[in-house]
Design brief:
alpha+beta; 6-stranded mixed beta sheet; 6-stranded antiparallel barrel; 10 helices; 17 strands; about 25% strand; binds guanosine-5'-diphosphate; binds magnesium ion
Length: about 375
């Protein structure tokens, strides 16, 4: 196969390429960023950095995955995204879920502070990513990342399968994420929940009661009917997946959304996927980096720790990252800066190259 270059390998690991070059050099191998790494070096160095490499396609593409041992993995809450055709009731359903979650939760007080919310269902956490029409989800999927564990597909019972319904199914399938169907608006006079089921069969979304693998729940977001049922179904689906992560690893995850706040500076809402993020941690998110000044949970409270599947706001980044960017904690601020600057430079070069000014390969071979 083609193999990976030093630059691609470093990018996949989320480390500066100089770090990889240094490690290669210590093994007696001189490499530049654009050179392809020998397979055994890929494995050796990934292992050295606590990561594992596997070949994921017939074209022998490499995937670099974390190397957590089974006993390090602990159960984590499910991350859920609501999708569906416009006006089928995504926002209403999320609102109903939130208020239901508040009712179930002792702590209560779920706000819409950040682009994600945490709902307490029977004492268990469910993280909802508020992505109705949100770009983040697309951006993340485009990177082949699995940011969500379960897709709740909302289909209005009076309207049936529409173009964006199909699009959502395709997205979920491409990401390998199971679909729970919420057949909404069952309170409406023209509602026909069974027709929705029939229509979805054509797209491979088949109810369990018909021998398929998809769970369906009839709901009315407006009347708040079937919401508890839906939440229980989401938990059932999540249980099948046996979701786990290592909470003690170096924290990493994805940027859900980010903006420049007048008072607080760059603010990034991230989803922690692995490890535990804490104030004082040095973070790289895409092309930006910084030391975490404060973490703000979905309730708007400062928190001392964000664990796997927790959404949290990061304050303290030097610039605004992009939704879909990966974030990762670094032990050395120096390394964080190096990686962020490397990415900034690459982005600038790519931009220039796109305008026909310079060849990326030319430049990188000189670094
Ligand atoms: P979204 O575009 O998918 O986020 O849809 P919205 O949540 O904004 O809902 C679109 C419209 O459908 C709004 O006027 C809602 O009040 C209405 N709606 C949502 N859920 C229900 C429901 O369960 N029953 C009825 N009758 N109307 C609903
Ligand atoms: Mg909406």
């Amino acid at each position: 196969g083609e193999g990976v270059t030093v630059g691609e390998f470093a990018e996949a690991l989320g480390v500066p390429s100089s770090d990889v070059i240094k490690r290669l050099f210590m093994l007696g191998q001189a490499f530049t960023v654009t050179q392809t790494m020998p397979e055994e070096m890929v494995e050796l160095i990934a292992d050295d950095m606590g990561r594992k490499v596997r070949i994921v396609s017939p074209e022998e593409e490499y995937a670099i995955v974390y190397n957590d041992s089974e006993e390090d993995l602990k159960p984590r809450p499910p991350v859920v995204t609501v999708m569906g055709h416009v006006d089928h009731g995504k926002t209403s359903l999320l609102d109903a879920i939130r208020s239901s979650g508040v009712a179930l939760s002792e702590a209560g007080g779920i706000t819409q502070h950040i682009g994600a919310s945490v709902v307490n269902v029977q004492g268990r956490q469910v993280t909802f990513i508020d992505t109705p029409g949100h770009e983040a989800f697309t951006a993340m999927r485009a990177r082949g990342a699995e940011v969500t564990d379960v897709v709740v597909l909302v289909v209005a019972a009076d309207d049936g399968v529409m173009p964006q319904t199909v699009e959502a199914i395709n997205h979920a399938e491409a990401a390998g994420v199971p679909i729970v169907v919420a057949v909404n608006k069952i309170d409406k006079p023209g509602a026909n929940p069974d027709r929705v089921r029939q229509e979805l069969v054509e797209y491979g979304v088949i109810p369990e009661e018909w021998g398929g693998s998809n769970m369906f729940v009839n709901v009315s977001a407006k009347k708040k009917e079937g919401i508890d049922d839906l939440l229980e179904t989401i938990l059932l689906q999540a249980d099948v997946l046996e979701l786990k992560a290592n909470p003690d690893a170096i924290a990493s995850g994805f940027v859900i959304e980010a903006n420049l706040d007048r008072g607080r500076g760059p603010v990034a809402t991230v989803l922690v996927q692995r490890g535990t993020l804490k104030p004082g941690d040095v973070v790289v998110a895409g092309q930006s980096y910084g030391r975490v000044r404060a973490l703000v949970d979905p309730r708007g409270n400062h928190t001392k720790a964000a664990k796997p599947s927790d959404p949290v706001e990061i304050l303290g980044l030097g610039s605004v990252p992009t939704a879909g960017d990966e974030f990762r904690v670094f032990e050395e601020e120096r390394d964080a800066r190096k990686l962020a600057e490397e990415r900034q430079m690459r982005a600038r070069l790519k931009e220039q190259e796109a305008r026909g000014h310079v060849s990326l390969d030319d430049l990188f071979s000189r670094i």
